[in-house]
Structure formats: C-alpha cells, structure tokens
Design brief:
It is built from 16 helices and no strands. The chain is an all-alpha fold and 383 residues long. It is globular, with a radius of gyration of 20 Å.
Length: 383
C-alpha cells in the first residue's frame, strides 16, 4: 500500500517541482510588475485558506485516497488550461488568477487528505521513516525540477513546464487506485454528526496541545514573510540581476539538495527534541533573504538555499511525525486543516503586501528587513 502511495506522491512531485519556477516567469512574461505575480499567488492561497476547514472534515469523513484522486483530476484541468493559454500566447493575468484560485480550492481538499494517509499505511514505529522517505523522494525530484524548469523557460517557454505538471497529476490517479486503505477509526454504525460539530471536535484537539497552536501561529507570520520575500521579490531580483531565470532555478534546486541530505540522515537518526531542532533549522531560511538583499549572485544563492533547505527539512519531518504520533487518526485531517489554515492564512496578505511594498520601497532593503524578522521570530519561539 505504501509503495503505491509513494509512487503517486513521487509522480506529482515531479511536475510540482517545476511549477513554482514556470508559473512565476509565466506571469512575469505577461507583466514585469511585482504586483501581478503577487495577485496570482494570493489568489491560490486565498481560496485554499477559505476551503481548508471544509476539506479537513471531508477528509475525515470519506476515503482520503478517493479525495486525492479527485483533487488530482481537477489539478490536471486547471494546470492544463494554464499551460494551453501560456503556450498559445493568449494568457492574461486575470486568466492565471482565476485558474490558480480554482487550483487553491482543490488543494484545500487534497492536503488534509494527504496528511491523513500515512498513519493508515505504516505502523507507529515507522512513521518518521515513512515521512523521511516521502520527503527524500520529493526533495530529490526538486533538485532537478526547478533547474529543468528554468532551462525550459529559457529555451521553450514556461507553458511546457505547466503542461508536464498537469499530465503527471493525471498519471498519478491510477496509482492511487491501487492504495488499499484499511478500515478507518470511525465506525460505520455511528450516528452522523454535523460539519459544525466535527469542526468543533477538531478545534478542541488542536487547542488542547500548546506546541501545536503556538508553532502554527508563528508560522502564520513566517510563511507570510517567506512568500513575500522569496516567492514575490526573489524572481524579481533574479530577473533584474545576473542571476536570471536559470540561476533562480538552480538556487531552488540547491534548496532541494539540502533537504535530501537531511532526509537521508533522518531515515536512520531519531530526533530526541524534534521541534527545538526544527525551529533552529527554520531560522536558516533567512540566509537566502540576506543574500538576495546584499549580494544577489548565483553561486551565493545556491549555497544559501542549500543551507536553508537542510534546516527547513528538519522541521518538516519533525512536524509531520509529531502530528502523526500524537493526534488521533480519526481527527488527524481536521487538525491538519487547522494547522494549514493558521500557517497559510496570512500568505495571501503577505504576497499582496510585498507586491505593494516593492513599489514603494527599495527591494533590497525589504529583503534585509525580512531576513532579520524571519530569523528573530523563529528563534524567539524557542523561549
């Protein structure tokens, strides 16, 4: 069961690894304004935030693998349409805003379902290793994905990378059909409860653990800074300097290489203080922000993103494992939806805010301030 799930996740990761680069430069090909890219990113995040809680309830009620199959089919449609518009030269900013908004809503159902599958496929003693293996696959792919996407953008245009992403989501659907998920914790004879009641139960589990709501709240701010500084300002700086599209793709690939290094270690080494190590690692994401603000050169960005990727991966595996081991399976998707909501709710505002700030202030100054704020908040969480 886990092997088929691993194959499906790996397949979709191949295309998704290319999308961040392809979509960013597809937007910048239409408009060089930072605000245009901010609008597209904000549209995706806004609809995802709106539907996340509903997605968590649905994933705890019904088959998580069927929900993922449906999500993949709809992602194939949205990314395929975006690819068609970009390839035919008819894409406008509002087209991509609408399509990414739909894609964000689809993700709101797919993410909680995906989060709740692993404990159904492996025993409690192998959850960290399972998460590390999944992360290893995803990170290994994203080493080459962004670099290939950057080369495709330069050589053929961003539409081809979007098309590959769409097709691979379609290919993953029959793989998920082979994932035989065992019986759920919820008994079929139970009296059905309302969505509001199920949301309240999930909220109770969420707030009953200080380590959960504290870190989720902190990441609400950190992710807003991240999307603004890295996803909005990063491509703008890359395009206006010697880094360029291909250099930016290489930098993102280096970030993935850093995560691969750590996942290899985490397949064997158990974290005794996982969230402490994780927050220390997260603080390293400030390093590429500093480089972008001070000396935006490809070789320095590659090193900076490698270090950041290694640090962030420690947190990623530790957080998933902590949730899988300490949250009851019957409410896991709902708790993870509250996690995603709290972590992502400020990201649309962050994207839009940075898009506006880039028109009013020097981009390099914004990046330096972001680096200091990001590192400071990450380390303050340890208190």
């Amino acid at each position: 069961r886990f092997a088929w799930y691993f194959a499906a996740r790996t397949t979709t990761s191949i295309g998704s690894a290319m999308t961040s680069v392809a979509l960013a430069f597809a937007v910048l090909h239409i408009s060089n304004e930072p605000g245009a890219l901010a609008q597209v990113l904000a549209a995706h995040m806004t609809t995802m935030v709106i539907f996340l809680l509903v997605g968590g309830v649905v994933a705890d009620r019904y088959s998580r693998t069927v929900i993922m199959q449906t999500s993949h089919a709809l992602t194939f449609f949205t990314q395929g349409m975006a690819a068609y518009l970009v390839l035919t030269g008819t894409a406008q900013i509002w087209h991509l805003v609408v399509l990414e908004a739909v894609n964000g809503a689809v993700s709101a159902f797919g993410m909680p379902a995906m989060m709740g599958v692993v404990p159904l496929l492996v025993g409690p003693d192998r959850i960290q290793q399972a998460n590390a293996v999944l992360s290893f696959s995803r990170s290994s792919i994203t080493i080459v994905g962004p670099a290939v996407a950057g080369a495709l953008v330069v050589g053929a245009g961003p539409g081809w990378a979007l098309l590959v992403d769409a097709v691979l989501f379609l290919v993953a659907i029959p793989m998920l059909m082979r994932v035989g998920v065992p019986g759920r914790a919820r008994a079929g004879s139970e009296v059905p409860t309302s969505m509001l009641t199920e949301l309240r139960d999930g909220w109770g589990e969420f707030v009953s653990r200080t380590w959960v709501w504290l870190i989720v709240g902190v990441f609400g701010v950190l992710n807003a800074i991240h999307i603004g500084a890295i996803s909005v300002l990063g491509p703008v700086v890359a395009k206006s300097t010697s880094v360029g599209e291909q250099g930016w793709g290489l930098a993102l690939s280096a970030e993935a290489a850093g995560t691969v290094l750590l996942t290899v270690i985490l397949m064997r080494a158990r974290l005794t203080r996982p969230l402490v190590a994780g927050m220390l690692g997260v603080a390293l994401l400030a390093v590429p922000m500093l480089v972008l603000g001070l000396v935006p050169r490809t070789e320095l960005l590659v090193v900076a993103f490698f270090v950041a990727g290694a640090g962030v991966e420690v947190f990623g595996v530790a957080w998933s494992t902590a949730l899988h081991q300490h949250i009851p399976e019957a409410v896991l998707s709902r708790v993870s939806s509250y996690d995603a909501l709290g972590s992502f709710v400020a990201m649309p505002m962050g994207a839009m805010l940075y898009g506006w700030l880039a028109t009013a202030f020097d981009v390099r100054v914004l990046l330096l301030a972001s680096a200091l704020g990001y590192a400071g908040l990450s380390l303050a969480t340890l208190a």
